[in-house]
Amino acid sequence: MSAALRLVSSIAESDVIPTDKEALAERFGAVPGESKADKVKRQNRERQQKKRLRDAQAKLKAEAFHLPAITFYGGTVQAMIDVCKAGGFEESAEALTLLAHGGARLAGKDPQAFAALLAPVLAALALAGADLAKRDRHAFELLIAPPSRKGAEE
To answer: Average per-residue pLDDT in the chain?
Structure first.
């Protein structure tokens, strides 16, 4: 059997052309007997549906905050294990998400309690930052630069 004949026979077996208007509209886009005004309305409706979907996806993507892969060491690993056990979380990502939301809520309602919660961490960072400033001024400036300015000077 030649290649052309195989192609035609495979199309004839697998490609059944629908006969009702709805199936034709879904498959080919144009419905026989559709008026020009109906066609324009249908095309506008389809275009608007696609636009709404694209807009929703763009909004979701714009609102997403992506973190690079995080590596935890010793004490942080144990702290995450303790948080997951205390909260009954199966995944550490769920615990991190809820910690972020809880921290944001606490910072909004009671900034002093939030500062007290983070005081040991901030003190350790201040010491590490002071040590880093002594050893490597450039690395320290990168550490304290806001995210919007980190790539501006390069």
So the answer is: 76
